[in-house]
Write a structure and sequence with these properties.
Elements (H helix, E strand, L loop, with lengths): L3 E12 L3 E12 L5 E4 L2 E3 L41 H5 L64 H16 L1 H7 L13 H4 L4 E3 L12 E3 L21 H4 L6 E3 L4 E3 L6 E8 L1 E9 L8 E8 L8 E7 L2 E8 L7 E8 L3 E14 L5 E14 L5 E8 L9 E8 L16 E8 L4 E13 L3 E3 L16 E3 L3 H9 L1
Parallel strand pairs: 1-12, 10-17
Antiparallel strand pairs: 1-2, 2-9, 3-8, 4-7, 5-6, 10-11, 11-14, 12-13, 15-16, 16-20, 17-19, 18-20, 21-22
Length: about 475
């Protein structure tokens, strides 16, 4: 409906230990100048006023390029088309009054009267004198009422009737010479506006006899005018933008009342089945804090459109965030903030040595130690994120050391995962602790130094960098190796 808009909104009620429910709501604003009272509401992502045209599929040919043939869409009218409206013409309908026009002045005749030959009683009715400078007057059919009931004939049929009349006066040979047989008609070449079938309409019986049952261009309806309501809430996304290539329709659970004030009103639509899993995530190399999160999996057969999401735990409001569009079966992690009852600490050890027959290779060993403590009254699952350096230098080799427990690269990389990401995933019992140990080695020629990752020239960065090799000047290099 014009001047009525809606955006999706969600409410997630989380119950620790028993999952949760996701409620789909619609924020509706309408300015139709009519209050809706006790109406059944249905919202959809489809644009019913959008023109839909069929794609043009062109064939691919192998060979020399040929000119594109002209588009041809001409079709002969079906046989028996005039008889389609016989029953319609059989019903008597009042005809509109014919306006009476002023008589045109008649000039003096300049030629002798001509007797017309035709299928009139008595061998033909005399025609009125022709006037110069104006159209010939209409023939009088009062003496021939049967002429009014004649069916519409084709041009060829009219010429044949005239040829028969002439044959009665001058013979068949004279008629053939007077009226030569025209060539077979060639189908017309339609214009571009007649080839756009989506913009054509079928003329009805109220049209003229020459247009009945034929296609003709029609003016497309204008797009409805939407008067903008007040600003939508935070994280609101238009359903036509978030729906993508699919359309959804949702019906309200009951009848609703919506005034025509242009203000956003909340309407509950339905509850969607989802799967929730509580997890805790930390990246101690960036921040020594553990964040609580929810893994939300769309278990419904419908897509979840993007929109604002309100999260509550046991009826208490926690936060408001944005939910992206989720296809059926897709998973999204929702952050809930810092979990103060789960602590993490991290320390590193660096050691540099030389290997080779003449100590031509420098080895930098980095060890990472992470400790976790769970102070919650229930077991939890924690994911610890780390990173090892990556480099495109051929002379720089990076080797991973054995880790306890073993870490691994993410099976489903997320957009925020950097190159060289490694994850630990472990379960902590209530009041339990865990110690994680891992490391890596950097091997490069002794005459070169690390840029951006050398602990002797700069403080350790918050996250392992992407190291590159530099060749420092001679005096500085020897001083650096002796230190």
């Amino acid at each position: 409906m014009p001047n009525a808009q809606w955006v999706p909104s969600y409410r997630l009620d989380r119950h620790p230990g028993s999952g949760g429910t996701l409620t789909l709501r619609a924020l509706v604003a309408q300015r139709t100048e009519e209050d809706w009272s006790a109406v059944r509401l249905a919202v959809s992502t489809a644009d019913l006023h959008r023109p839909a045209e069929l794609p043009k599929l062109r064939s691919l040919r192998i060979g020399r390029r040929q000119p594109v043939p002209p588009v041809s869409g001409w079709r002969e009218p079906p046989s028996g088309l005039p008889g389609l409206f016989t029953d319609y013409d059989r019903v008597q309908r009042p005809e509109p009054p014919i306006p009476v026009a002023a008589p045109a002045p008649v000039a003096a005749p300049t030629a002798a009267p001509v007797r017309a030959r035709g299928p009139y009683p008595g061998g033909g009715a005399p025609a009125a004198p022709l006037a110069s400078g104006g159209p010939p007057p209409a023939p009088a059919f009062a003496a021939a009422p049967q002429a009014l009931s004649l069916d519409v004939q084709s041009t060829r049929g009219i010429r044949r009737s005239a040829a028969v009349s002439e044959a009665g006066f001058g013979g068949a040979e004279a008629a053939k010479k007077a009226l030569p047989v025209p060539p077979e008609p060639v189908g017309p070449v339609p214009g571009s506006e007649l080839l756009d079938y989506a913009a054509l309409t079928l003329a009805g019986p109220e049209e003229g006899r020459a247009q009945r049952g034929r296609l003709r261009p029609v003016r497309r309806p204008e797009q409805p005018v939407h008067r903008s309501p007040q600003e939508p809430p935070a994280h609101a996304v238009s359903p036509r933008q978030s729906a993508g290539s699919f359309d959804q329709r949702f019906d309200a659970a009951g009848r609703v009342d919506l005034p025509a004030d242009g203000v956003w009103h909340t309407v509950t639509l339905t509850e969607l089945p989802v799967t929730l899993a509580a997890e805790y995530v930390c990246a101690p190399a960036v921040e020594l804090a553990v964040f609580a999160s929810l893994l939300l999996t769309n278990s419904s057969p419908h897509a979840l459109l993007g929109g604002p999401l309100e999260v509550s735990a046991d009826g208490a409001f926690q936060l408001s965030t944005a939910l992206p569009t989720l296809a059926p079966g897709a998973t999204r992690r929702i952050g809930l903030g810092v979990a103060e009852s789960v602590r993490v600490s991290r320390r590193t050890e660096s050691r540099e040595s030389s290997t080779g027959l003449r100590s031509t290779t420098t080895v930098v060993t980095e060890r990472i130690h992470v400790e976790l403590a769970n102070r919650l009254p229930h077991p939890i699952t924690v994911e610890v994120r780390e990173r090892i350096p990556v480099s495109e230098e051929r002379e720089l080799r990076i080797e991973e050391l054995p880790s306890t427990p073993p870490w691994a690269a993410p099976t489903r990389p997320e957009p925020e995962d950097p190159a060289g990401a490694r994850h630990w995933r472990l379960a902590l019992p209530a009041g339990g602790t865990a110690v994680l140990d891992a490391g890596y080695e950097l091997r490069f020629p002794a005459g070169r130094a690390l840029a951006g990752g050398n602990r002797r020239s700069c403080p350790p960065p918050p996250a392992p960098p992407n190291p590159t090799l530099l060749t420092p000047p001679g005096p500085t290099a020897s001083a650096s190796s002796e230190s």
